[in-house]
């Protein structure tokens, strides 16, 4: 087993792949080996026809302390790993859920923010602490700033303010906060809902959520009509409609590469 595999465990739980950061020695910091492990695990989960949903979490009571200041990995390698990880989650045709089990700092906030759905322990502490180290929250900003109002972004990134999970949810950095003892139940509910959706429908919905705010209304109409034309007669749509009429749970066909959102 490689060091990368030891620091990020991939656990297959039925149709759900769990990527678990397990680097307690440095409070699950996002150094080169951890980032490489996350990228490797994400690519494997996306390539597997047996995986429908991906959950990202960590061991202990710290989700991640952010950048590993002692890491000696070349900066260019770190930058590419962030691009591959964040971009991979954004472009993934499968939902990615963040289970934020504890404190979340710096770049780790970006990891939480880039996931499709995210739930945190309401007592977890969030902080863009980079400015207090003479650094800038660059990589996390790319995916975190679209979730924040400019005033809230200034408060968090300029002051390095610490907020709890409840406040992070109220500001929109994450979707929801719950008491720590309810975190697993909330994740189970989310995963259950996601598994009830058709794989192709979920992939196309992710595409719309990401692209529609960035394109003109005419382009959005074109995209919507294109998806409708390409999926209306699909095996998935036929099965979903039949299951609804017959009042049963659908048996979804596997998501083939040609069916994935473009």
Which key terms come to mind for this protein?
single chain, 262 residues, alpha/beta, 2-enoyl-CoA Hydratase, Chain A, domain 1, Lyase 2-enoyl-coa Hydratase, Chain  A, domain 2, 6-stranded mixed sheet, 4-stranded mixed sheet, 10 strands, 47% helix, 16% strand, globular, disordered C terminus
**Poorly predicted sequence stretches spanning 5 or more consecutive residues:** 258-262
Measured distance between first and last alpha carbons: 35 Å
- What is the oligomeric state here? single chain
In CATH terms, the superfamily of the largest domain is 2-enoyl-CoA Hydratase, Chain A, domain 1
Strand element count: 10
Order of SSEs: HEEHEEHEEHEEHHEHEHHHH
Number of self-contained structural domains: 2
User: What's the CATH first level of the largest domain?
Assistant: Alpha Beta
Average of pLDDT: 94
Beta-strand proportion: 15-25%
What structural class do helix, strand and pairing data support? alpha/beta
């Amino acid at each position: 087993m490689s060091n990368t595999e030891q620091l990020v465990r991939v656990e297959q739980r039925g149709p759900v792949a769990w990527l678990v950061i397990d680097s307690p020695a440095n409070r699950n910091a996002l150094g080169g080996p951890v980032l490489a492990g996350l990228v490797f695990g994400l690519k494997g989960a996306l390539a597997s026809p047996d995986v429908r949903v991906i959950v990202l979490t960590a061991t202990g009571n710290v989700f991640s302390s952010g950048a590993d200041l002692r890491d000696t990995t070349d900066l260019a390698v770190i930058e590419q790993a962030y691009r591959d990880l964040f971009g991979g989650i954004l472009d993934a045709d499968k939902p990615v859920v963040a289970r934020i089990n504890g404190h979340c700092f710096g770049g780790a906030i970006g990891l939480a923010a880039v996931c499709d759905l995210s739930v945190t322990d309401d007592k977890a502490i969030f902080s863009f602490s980079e400015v207090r180290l003479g650094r800038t929250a660059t990589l996390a900003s790319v995916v975190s700033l679209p979730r924040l109002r400019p005033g809230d972004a200034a408060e968090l990134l300029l002051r390095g303010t610490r907020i709890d999970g409840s406040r992070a949810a109220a500001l929109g950095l994450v979707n929801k906060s719950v008491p720590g003892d309810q975190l697993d139940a909330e994740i189970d509910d989310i995963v259950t809902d996601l598994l009830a959706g058709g794989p192709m429908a979920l992939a196309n919905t992710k595409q719309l959520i990401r692209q529609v705010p960035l394109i003109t209304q005419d382009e959005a109409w074109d995209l919507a009509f294109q998806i409708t034309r390409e999926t209306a007669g699909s095996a998935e749509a036929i099965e979903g409609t039949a299951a609804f009429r017959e009042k049963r749970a659908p048996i979804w066909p596997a998501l083939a590469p040609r069916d994935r959102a473009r």
